[in-house]
Amino acid sequence: MEPKPARVRILDAAHELMLTVGLARATTKEIARAAGCSEAALYKYFDSKEELFVRVLTERLPRLTPLLASLAAEPGQGTLEGNLTEIARQAALFYEQSFPIGASLYAETQLKRRHDDALRRLGAGPHRPIEDLDAYLRAEQALGRVRADADTFAAANLLLGACAQRAFAYDMTATGERPPVDAFAARLAKTLLGGISVAPTRA
């Protein structure tokens, strides 16, 4: 079997280490070692650990960002309920998988501040999905599929906030069992549509 390219090995190693030891403790040195390359080789592909983190989120986790971008670029496709259900499903899975990676940052205030500053320089951060979903809903609003008086920014926060809360809250229970993602996404989308859609949702 042909060996994986170095960039792929680095991303695989970063994903695994960020999941197992957390973002704060996953150093570029440890990532390079796990990928079977030097730290200098890692920096040929990624400028910083923060860039590597962003690439892990976009290339190894459920593809929430590309989904939002494609929907915003071509509003009016499919049904609003179907689109929001798929957004909620992808977002729920994304937050479920990314929460263990980033949680360790919240225990180290200075590290989190540096991390947030670096993400801002990369044009990334946890606010981006909210802004992208808001952009999609505004595009649908312009087509008349979302009520003209609907607060699309609030709607985006409600949907994605619920998905993030699913990842957080159900880690705290005795069983750690989350609501099944498909049913959760469908209920969330249908409930949200009751407040913003110009058309009745399906019974």
From TrEMBL:
Keywords: DNA-binding, Transcription, Transcription regulation. This is TetR family transcriptional regulator. Residues 4-64 form the HTH tetR-type domain. PROSITE patterns: HTH_TETR_2 (PS50977). Coiled coil: none annotated. PANTHER family: HTH-TYPE TRANSCRIPTIONAL REGULATOR RUTR (PTHR30055), MYCOFACTOCIN BIOSYNTHESIS TRANSCRIPTIONAL REGULATOR MFTR-RELATED (PTHR30055:SF238). It holds the Pfam family TetR_N.
